[in-house]
């Protein structure tokens, strides 16, 4: 059995998709819906899927997917790590914990030292996965045998997993692309055009590879599904919450504060990491200021454009 913790859009979409491989139990802290999840409208729940508020029931599974937002995961582990330890734990969160300045895999490894820790990431909208549209993701686990076992366990005929042992690279790609997607959305929302967006995506990718290299990621991971693949999707699709949030910032419109926008907190985390490690991450710094409301879009763009001219 597969257990999925976190009954938001992504946890529910994966639960629906993975019933193709056998029974799935989906846990949420508050399940106040029946039939279909309002975070994933129009998706009926298949018969092989059990939805529960009983954590023990979901923890009977041999493989557990943690589909919680990055800023929630740390507190969840503070409460429940002992019950998760020793299991195969796969994180789907795309962010950097603002308090500890680490990615999800390090958070899990700290709380659950005897667990097998993996990361599932890559270009994928919950709605697409739930509808059974073809999707390719990266499954990262430092243990090659466990990576292969999880790859087999979590692939379906339409959900194609590629494996890697570069956990740091895979999770950084997913976390950092959200920040760049906010910047890309801001550019579009402010009416600055597609050429400016292409510049932000490309310079954002340079920023991603710089930080990932500094933290020990392999360069080829960043050019794969979890990096460039997800960056492309998130910076160009109106389905992305991070991109839409950026559009709202750029155009001065309101944005629903209950929507999960991982890139806002992650930009602030990156800004702190940049100060700590002496790194140059100007786009992340700009997104952090914009998300905090500490700078206008015009001023943020001025700051980026007035940086010294240099080699590419
Ligand atoms: N939605 C997507 O298309 C998508 C795709 C790939 C990856 N992801 C990633 O998956 C993660 C989850 O995103 P999502 O789209 O499911 O978000 P969501 O906003 O749809 O759902 C988040 C869920 O977490 C629950 N939650 C919040 N605090 C909690 C706590 N303390 N304990 C238990 N549950 C808690 C909420 O009740 C909600 O059900 C994010 O890191 C996101 O980047 C999402
Ligand atoms: O809606 P977003 O911006 O959180 O993006 C969802 C996925 O991460 C896209 O791969």
Automatic annotation (TrEMBL):
A GO term for molecular function: glycerol-3-phosphate dehydrogenase (NADP+) activity
Is Nuclease given among the entry's keywords? no
Q: What UniProt keywords are attached to this protein's entry? A: Cytoplasm, Lipid biosynthesis, Lipid metabolism, NAD, NADP, Nucleotide-binding, Oxidoreductase, Phospholipid biosynthesis, Phospholipid metabolism
Write down the EC number. Answer: 1.1.1.94
Q: Where does sn-glycerol 3-phosphate bind?
A: 94, 122, 124, 177, 230, 240-242
Q: Which residues form the Glycerol-3-phosphate dehydrogenase NAD-dependent N-terminal domain?
A: 2-146
The catalytic residues are: 177 (proton acceptor)
Q: What does this protein do?
A: Catalyzes the reduction of the glycolytic intermediate dihydroxyacetone phosphate (DHAP) to sn-glycerol 3-phosphate (G3P), the key precursor for phospholipid synthesis.
Q: What is this protein called?
A: Glycerol-3-phosphate dehydrogenase [NAD(P)+]
What organism does this protein naturally occur in?
Paracoccus liaowanqingii
């Amino acid at each position: 059995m597969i257990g999925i913790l976190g009954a938001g859009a992504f946890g529910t979409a994966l639960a629906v998709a993975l019933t193709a491989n056998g029974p799935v139990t989906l846990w949420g802290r508050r399940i106040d819906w029946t039939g279909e999840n309002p975070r994933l409208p129009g998706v009926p729940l298949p018969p092989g899927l059990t939805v529960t508020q009983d954590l023990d029931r979901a923890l009977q599974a041999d493989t557990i997917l943690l589909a919680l937002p990055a800023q929630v995961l740390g507190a969840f582990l503070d409460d429940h790590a002992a019950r998760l330890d020793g299991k195969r734990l796969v994180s789907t969160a795309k962010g950097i914990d603002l308090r500890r300045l680490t990615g999800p895999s390090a958070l899990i490894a700290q709380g659950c030292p005897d667990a097998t820790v993996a990361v599932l990431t890559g270009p994928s909208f919950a709605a697409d996965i739930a509808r059974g549209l073809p999707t390719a993701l990266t499954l990262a686990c430092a243990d090659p045998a466990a990576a292969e076992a999880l790859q087999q366990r979590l692939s379906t005929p339409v959900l194609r997993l590629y494996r890697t042992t570069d956990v740091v690279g895979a999770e950084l790609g997913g976390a950092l692309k959200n920040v760049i997607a906010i910047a890309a959305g801001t550019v579009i929302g402010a009416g600055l055009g597609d050429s400016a967006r292409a510049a932000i995506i490309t310079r954002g990718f340079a920023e991603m590879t710089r930080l990932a290299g500094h933290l020990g990621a392999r360069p080829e991971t960043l050019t794969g599904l979890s990096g460039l693949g997800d960056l492309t999707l998130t910076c160009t699709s109106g389905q992305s919450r991070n991109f839409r949030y950026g559009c709202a910032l750029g155009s001065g419109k309101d944005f629903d504060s209950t929507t999960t926008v991982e890139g806002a907190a992650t930009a602030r985390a990156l800004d702190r990491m940049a100060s700590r490690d002496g790194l140059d991450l100007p786009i992340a710094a700009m997104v952090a200021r914009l998300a905090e409301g500490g700078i206008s879009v015009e001023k943020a763009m001025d700051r980026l454009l007035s940086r010294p001219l240099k080699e590419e």
